[in-house]
Amino acid sequence: MVRALQKNVPVQVKTIGNIEAFTSVAIKSQVNGQIARVHFTEGRDVEKGALLVSIDPEPFQATVSQFEAALAKDQAQAGFAREQAGRYEGLLREGIVTHDQNDLLQSNAEALAAAVVAESLRHFP
Question: Sign of the CA dihedral 90, 95, 96, 99?
């Protein structure tokens, strides 16, 4: 007969196995670019809406600068066309230019103004 004893015994299980994440998420960027910084530690929980990755902003800033320059150029051309159309309107009243010449400049001014609006909406919504 053996007497039972009460002792603290460490619980250890030695086995071979695989560990699988409870949940995982696939992340896909909406834009192409070089990753500049990772804002999370692998294996840690993240909150909904947390910033995970920063993409290098330089190429995007360069593109925005190009769009701004193109818009400024278009605005300057539209302004010139508007002024020229105004001058031709005065010349038409004096009988120096024809209606066709005046209409052409008026439509050109309107087209350039519309192009500025379209360009603005396309690149700077």
Answer: positive
Q: Which fold has domain 58-123?
A: Helix Hairpins (1.10.287)
Q: First-to-last CA distance in the chain?
A: 88
* Partners of 15 in beta bridges: none
pLDDT in tens, 40-68: 888 788 888 899 899 999 998 998 899 99
Q: Within 1-125, where are the H helices?
A: 58-93, 99-123
DSSP state of 37: E
- Give the DSSP letter of residue 48: T
pTM value? 0.59
Q: 83 Cβ partners below 8 Å, 6+ apart?
A: none
Residue among 71, 27, 25, 81 at smallest CA distance from 53: 27
- Mapped onto helix, strand or coil, the DSSP state of residue 38 is strand
